[in-house]
Amino acid sequence: MSASEPESPPSTVPDASSPASMIQHSIAETLLEHNKNPVYCSGTWKVASDDIVLFYGEGESSRRLALQGATDAQLEHLANSCDKATFGVNQQDVLDETYRKAGKLDADHFAWNFQAFGLVNHIKKVLFALDSKPREIRAELYKLNVYGPGSFFKAHKDTPRGEDMFGSLVVVLPTPHEGGELYLRHGGKEWVYDSASELANLREGDGPGIGYVALYSDVEHEVASVKSGYRITITYNLYFASEQNAPSAKPASPPSIEPVAALLGDLLAQPEFLPKGGLLGFGLLHEYPFPRRQGEVMPIAPLEAVLKGSDRVIMNAVRQLGLDAALYIVYKASGHEYSFGKKPEVISQQLIPWDAMGEVENLDEVLVGNYGGIVTKSRHRGHATEEWYWKKVRKEEHPITWVTPKTKNNSFKDAYLAYGNQAEIGHVYGTMALVAKIGGPDDRFDLAILEKTDEDVDAEWAAFIGDQPAPKRKQKKRRTKQ
Ligand SMILES: O=C(O)CCC(=O)C(=O)O
Ligand SMILES: [Fe+2]
């Protein structure tokens, strides 16, 4: 039996030029466009010469280094005072100068006068530009790095130190250098921040300044080889501040409709959009650190508090509209029991330790039966050209209409022991997404996904094989919002 995708049932997808599809496109564009939802921001920042004074060393050999106009000999002394920089591999610090060649001082071995508060506030405004209620953030001094000629740091992502850490801030000090550009990559795009030329331009202008780049933790970055001079950076870890640590209490702002919420509201107002209700999906664009406790099922809902960039913007929008929405993992299984049908796709709000589950017979049934799973692609799809299977598919399937596609950014793969008379390992793939349950045009905000009756399915089958037009299905209320 062929496992190819069967013919689709009557389509509910509007054509590309319909108002619904144009609004859907605008939402995706707003969320995906780098300029509206940047994954990093960079530039130069004016400082007073007193700010860029560095203290380092211990006891008799401690030093005060004014960076404005520092001599080569002074910078060389700083470089020679550094330890060799290591980097993390599988939770261990590794020294490998073919991967990272630079000097470093830990935060307890240096100090400088610069107060990052103003810069951090600026970064918050730029990185969270579309976020109408951005969380407070704080910067924690991390390290000083010195890159002399021939120093570099190959492509890596910064290890998040804690679930509240969302990014890093790299401050580049105004010491003349060439090369050492910082390459940044995310979602298949690449950008470059050339601190050497930005700082050189600044030197010709008035007053001292520093270079900076703030990036989300899941942005890959790489420091190109320094050609001449010293490139000195001070890095900070960026955290979402807890209420007590927040630098200032935020005045209550009057409620205003966010642009993305407004677009989403317009989309839901289109009667041809999901005329029978259904699931609306948004692939998350960022990765999130998540504690995995051995063998424990974990709800992923708490991640809502640490969403970044466009992920937070869309979450704010669905919350503002009062939609029934949550973070889900989209699970897809592969294993011997699926070799004849289609790989099922089931969403659940639980992170499941598949490797600790014992033998798993039908992953989709386990998810639906025990973990509030909703089948979004039926494993019977592979046989769905036969009436009986087709009905089964229609009955159990609640397909997702994706506004922004699932991404590989936050996907993971787990192994499990597939049920059978011989031990076999299957694989589960998970991807995080935000999924909203939408009612039909008259009940957008009141309905959970619709239940289908046998009559609905029979009528849809008849319409599918061309007997008669699909009847309008009466919606059943399952849940009413107060
Ligand atoms: O020094 C820089 O420009 C970047 C340093 C860095 O990527 C790191 O410390 O993880
Ligand atoms: Fe880094």
From TrEMBL:
<dbReference type="InterPro" id="IPR044862">
    <property type="entry name" value="Pro_4_hyd_alph_FE2OG_OXY"/>
</dbReference>
<keyword id="KW-0408">Iron</keyword>
<feature type="domain" description="Fe2OG dioxygenase">
    <location>
        <begin position="138"/>
        <end position="240"/>
    </location>
</feature>
<dbReference type="InterPro" id="IPR005123">
    <property type="entry name" value="Oxoglu/Fe-dep_dioxygenase_dom"/>
</dbReference>
<dbReference type="GO" id="GO:0016491">
    <property type="term" value="F:oxidoreductase activity"/>
</dbReference>
<keyword id="KW-0479">Metal-binding</keyword>
<feature type="region of interest" description="Disordered">
    <location>
        <begin position="1"/>
        <end position="20"/>
    </location>
</feature>
<dbReference type="GO" id="GO:0046872">
    <property type="term" value="F:metal ion binding"/>
</dbReference>
<dbReference type="Pfam" id="PF13640">
    <property type="entry name" value="2OG-FeII_Oxy_3"/>
</dbReference>
<keyword id="KW-0560">Oxidoreductase</keyword>
<protein>
    <recommendedName>
        <fullName>Fe2OG dioxygenase domain-containing protein</fullName>
    </recommendedName>
</protein>
<comment type="similarity">
    <text>Belongs to the iron/ascorbate-dependent oxidoreductase family.</text>
</comment>
